[in-house]
Design a protein that fits this description.
There is one protein chain. It contains 1 helix and 3 strands, in the order E-E-E-H. The longest helix is centred in the middle third of the chain and has 7 residues, at 49-55. With 80 residues, the chain is mainly beta. The termini are far apart. It comes from Aspergillus fumigatiaffinis. GO terms for molecular function: FAD binding; oxidoreductase activity.
């Protein structure tokens, strides 16, 4: 099992399950085995498998919001 500070890249999350005995999330990483975690943060984009797991397949379909563009400007110096 990965330690808290491990960063693992180039692994596709294929399924997420809930281990009812441990209360943890079990993340399947394709052919690379699985990992258990207390917390899963879904940052996997518009076709998020994490969202699919949480909301179910029937609530998964992304829908066009009608926005074509959104943006803004700010003074770069306000960063510093
Ligand atoms: C052509 C184009 C132009 C855009 N231009 C702008 C712009 O000018 N300004 C702007 O603000 N926004 C723009 N956007 C939108 C912006 O790219 C997205 O809103 C933003 O990238 C979303 O970030 P995210 O982190 O949610 O997802 P993403 O950037 O999509 O990142 C998701 C990551 O998760 C990974 N991933 C997905 N599924 C899995 C999985 N099962 N297992 C493991 N990893 C997985 C992906 O490989 C990816 O690295 C543009 C989008 C497109 C397509």
């Amino acid at each position: 099992m990965a330690e808290a500070a491990d960063v693992v890249t180039y692994r596709e999350v294929t399924t997420i399950k809930h281990n009812l005995q441990t209360g943890k999330a079990v993340v399947q990483l394709g052919d690379f085995g699985e990992d258990e975690a207390d917390l899963v943060i879904g940052a996997d984009g518009i076709n998020s498998i994490v969202r699919r797991h949480l909301l179910g397949t029937e609530n998964f379909c992304p829908q066009y919001s009608g926005y074509a563009w959104a943006g803004g400007c700010m003074d770069l110096e306000s960063f510093y």
